[in-house]
Give the backbone structure.
Amino acid sequence: MGVQTIVSPSGDELVVLSRQDYQDLLDARDHAAAMREVAAGADTLTEAELGEYLAAPTPLAYWRKRRGMTQAQLATALDISQPYLAQLEAGKRTGDVTLYARLAEVLRLRIEDLVPEPAPAP
């Protein structure tokens, strides 16, 4: 890792490193956080479950089923309509952050676990 230390005009010491080294540090930080979550009891998936997760139209659809809830049960718990929940699960509608926070609470997840990955750029 090539690191350079410089002093800013205001006297602050700054560290300069390559974008790749910076990305490696971010990846190491994220990995450490993930391992802490697993050690604390976070859900992990088997290979078969990962296949089901990837095949689901949205993470919400996968996690609702994994938690053993019907759409009607989850919709009732959130005080939303079942057709609206179905559209969320199909990726045809989006909800606001408040709804996703409530979904995460009911499904015992983090909001990040419910947000679909953005489509790759062409």
Q: What stands out?
A: Residues 3-39 form one domain. The longest strand covers residues 3-7. The chain has six helices and two strands. The beta strands are 3-7, 13-17.
